[in-house]
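We modelled the chain as a single entity of 298 amino acids. Its sequence is:
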Amino acid sequence: MFMLRLLSYFFFFCSSLSSIAQIKTCDMPQASQFDFWIGEWKVYKNGTDTLVGFNTIKKVAGCALQENWRSVQSNSIGTSLNKFNAANNLWQQFWVDNNGNTLELAGYYKDNKMILLYEPKANVRQNYHRITWFQINDSTVRQLWETKYNTTDEWSVAFDGLYKKIKPKTNTITGIGGIFFKSKNPKELKAWYQKHFHIDTDQFGFMFESYDINHPQKKVYTQWSPFSSTTNYFEPSTKEFMINYRVENLDDVISELKNHGVSFIDEMESYEYGKFIHLLDPEGNKIELWEPIEMPTK
């Protein structure tokens, strides 16, 4: 019993030391040297208008950076963790992608550049990798990935990308959140779509999933729902349909619309899946504004 207690105290002490070291590391100025990479980015082939992918970099676990990459030219996705290591005074990155590739790099920040290098072990036939991030300005970063064989001094370019920061949108419609329309027989209509278009409908219809082009790691949803022809849900509109629009910052949207003289049918309501409010457009179409609550990833 004494030994178990001693071991538990030992592991607690080590954990505490680790937490203290973590706090001290995050307080060091070097720990924020890579913060210029933080953001949501569209990545282009440098020198062209060719979009090659999206990358999102955010802070995690205090002062580490997590990268989430998605290519638009292939099915390639990948992620990396990046952190300043106070023990050796180096930045470290561990990369993994959906093709099973991994890469461990280490390096330093100097002259507005982050330079990370992978060096294979001696007598191992692998390439050297050198990746440099150039801090051009607050909204532009260049990433240059170079490789070379361990038998030569000549580097070749594997990837040269220009990051352009995605500007956050506020008080605007970000997409279609739902299409609702009247049907003489919603049950039979859903069964027809399920048979011919393989839509796995439920009592509400079907929820389409996609990704937000401006937030490439974020899933968005569009609800397709036939309603009974006798529904009063579309009132006071006399139309056969209602459109749901996704928005961000619904409170701000409501305030701005009211400042422009727009009236609402009801008051904003909040549910576990988001906030809602309704209005009519100038042609009498009922609009439902929806600020979704981000669903946890499984």
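As a brief sanity check on the tokenised model: The first strand starts at residue 39 and ends at 45. DSSP finds three helices and 17 strands in the chain.
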